[in-house]
Amino acid sequence: MLRAHHRLPATAPNSSRLFSAIAALIHALDYSSGDEKEKPFPSSARDPPPSPPKLTSAHVLRTLRGLRNSPLVALAYFRDCENLGFRHDLSTYSEIVRLLSAPPGHKEKLVSLFLRLLNSPNACAAVAAVFGRLKRSSHGSTAPLAFAFDALIKAHAARRNARETVAIFRRIGGLGVSPSVRSCNFLLNFAAECGELEMVTAVYDWMKGFGIRPDAYTFTILIKALCHAGKSEEAFEMFRRMKEMGVKPDKMTYATFVAGMCSCGELNLGYAVLEETVREGVILSAIDYNMVIDGLCKENRLQEAEMLLQKMARQDVTLDSYGYSYLIRRYCEVGNLVKALDLYEEMASKGIQTSPLIVSYVLQCFRKLGLASEALLYFQKFRESGLSLDKVLYNIGIDAHCKLGNMKEALNLLQEMRDKGFAPDKIHYTCLINGYCLKGEIVNAQKVFEDMLQTNVEPDLVTYNVLASGFCKYGFVDEAFDLLDFMVDRGIEPNALTYGLAIDGFCRGGKLSEAEILFNILVERGIDQSEVLFSAMVCGYLHLGCTAHAYMLFLRFAAQGRLVDEISCSKLIGGLCKDGNVEGASNVFNTMLEKNVIPDTISYSKIIMAYCKSGDMQNARAWFEDLVRRGVSIDVILYTTLINGYCKANRLQEACDLFVEMTKIGIKPDVVAYTVLLDGHLKETLKQGWLGIAKDRRKIEFKVKHSKLLNSMKDMKIEPDVVCYTVLIDGQCKTEYIKDARKLLDEMLEKGLTPDAYTYTALISGYCSQGEIAKAEKLLEEMVDRGIEPDMLTFSVLDRGILRAREMQR
């Protein structure tokens, strides 16, 4: 404990002349005799004023106590004493603290006083001693102590040292001085802002030790600090404990919890508490709702996000553009442009102002879907609405024009952007270069590139790649190599993608020899990322129809333990299947699987179809089962491919079993699947004729099976298309139900379907087989009248029918 005569640090000089004069007057009165009190001024102007006697701690303390009703005057006296050379000790410091803490209190002055005290040596001990005296002189009154404690905490916080602040908090509390909940909250918030979670929890524990009941703001600070540290479970436990203690969360608490849970990835908890606020009648701001909407969108829970947006409107929460922007952005990212536009129109109908960012989401989605024309229509619509366009939106408009080959309009838009004070950057120039390259106007592309350099806009690798690809594609070989050299001179090293684009460009331009020369040179140099080069060369060969060369290059790269990219593999599988090299396609498949690369569903479809076409149903089924085992979603197209293969292989029962399996697992058959089975049953019926099965029996069985399938189609609300009707008509004709076949044709026409040459040829063949040549010829005339051109098969069928009829007559 400090002794009473311990000298404490001097305070800063007071600049207030009024307080200084008053303090000096008080001092003079305090140390003069009775006669002098009657004559406070000197008797002669020549005589100097009497020097005050030397100040003592007792005199200063007595004077301060005498000014207990004028704490600010006491403070001025306190400072002037120091200016006169007096060094305050523990007793005088304690007294001025007591005076400034007395109601109503002067917190700013007290904070300033504590800041001076905290700068002294052994500050912690000095402060503890001051509070010890203050507690003894408080006579049971806690308000001045709490007031002084608040000021001390704020003074410590001003020094931005959380640990030091918490240490003095703990020491003063150890003296039996109980802080107010307000002081505790201030300290909690200060420690939280400093990122000292350990200090935050320590203060909370000491609060409980002091018996201080936390309020809603206390828990709000704790929840925020825990969430900021990523401790979502502890934050939720704190929220639960708050309710158990009977402390009702306020609007700030709910908002903090919702935001914290969203930031920690605990979206469901945040969403649940958001709904709880509605039940409690606490309406949060749009910001809080928008955070949950953003989280739902990121998790692709778009329907829930929309429902929450609707709830906001019903609860009279002021809607803004942010909630809509999150939904529009996500719908655009997944390619659901219709939904994005619906939300945009809804937002506009409610008078919510859009932003360039939202518009860019929509226009970018148009571009991603290849709808350049529609992108331009909406761009013009947004521009005419008065929306302030930025450089990003201008770039989208310019790029759309370039994609459509409207280079004049693109240049006009670029000039408009310049007129509005926007300087084109490398992205705008690259779009123009790409547009000219797409049109084959390489000279103009080169001019744009030169203009770009003249305006001190430095091209990046993308710009060089686009121009190099254009040069190669249209045979500007020398210019392409000059550009590569120019890149190096500018400090930009061409990468594998640059060379890959060059190879692709040569191949697309029919310059296979140039592509091969460049490829071989690069491979000899050992360019990094050779996967890109081999992939480009494989795709180049495939583009030129050199599937065998592409396959050999694939094998060469695979022998090195490497694999070309998935796109190249997929294209190679398609090319091999198209050429009938199913074994080669299967080898590519197996190589991919060995490298843990799963081919896409399209590649599976192609190889299954190729095996079906070759009649190898065992391998076709094996690849189908492999796809199922990998958990890949099987669609109706794959099932139909395999069903068709079984039908063509005269294995109708297995086709029917597969059809049933498909429906059982919830895949709805389409009209193609039904058509395949209908045609399969027809061929099976004809096959029975070869096996000597009686015609009447065959006809009845065929009729039953067809009726069953047609009823199933009707139940599924699947309407036959032209191909399906053609198969049905052909079946009725070959089973000698000619009248029914004609009814089917009339039914087609009534539905607005246009029969093709195959449909009419099937019925003409049926009439001819029955010897009804006149009806066949009349049907041919009807076919021509409808504008359907007969093909060679039609005339061949009719000619054979006429010849057969003549032979029968002879």
Low-confidence stretches: 1-7, 10-25, 27-47
Let me know the number of strands. Answer: 0
Mean pLDDT: 83
CATH class of the domain at 720-810: Mainly Alpha
Gross morphology? elongated
List the helices and strands and how they pair.
Blueprint (H helix, E strand, L loop, with lengths): L16 H14 L3 H5 L18 H10 L4 H13 L6 H12 L5 H12 L4 H14 L6 H16 L3 H13 L6 H13 L3 H14 L5 H13 L3 H13 L6 H13 L3 H14 L5 H13 L3 H13 L6 H13 L3 H13 L6 H13 L3 H13 L6 H13 L3 H13 L6 H14 L2 H13 L6 H13 L3 H13 L6 H13 L3 H14 L4 H14 L3 H12 L7 H13 L3 H13 L6 H14 L2 H13 L6 H13 L3 H13 L6 H20 L4 H21 L6 H13 L3 H13 L6 H13 L3 H13 L6 H18 L1
Helix pairs in contact: 1-4, 3-4, 3-5, 4-5, 5-7, 5-8, 6-8, 8-9, 8-10, 9-11, 10-11, 10-12, 12-13, 12-14, 14-15, 14-16, 15-16, 16-17, 16-18, 17-18, 18-19, 18-20, 19-20, 20-21, 20-22, 21-22, 22-23, 22-24, 23-24, 24-25, 24-26, 26-27, 26-28, 28-29, 28-30, 29-30, 30-31, 30-32, 32-33, 32-34, ...
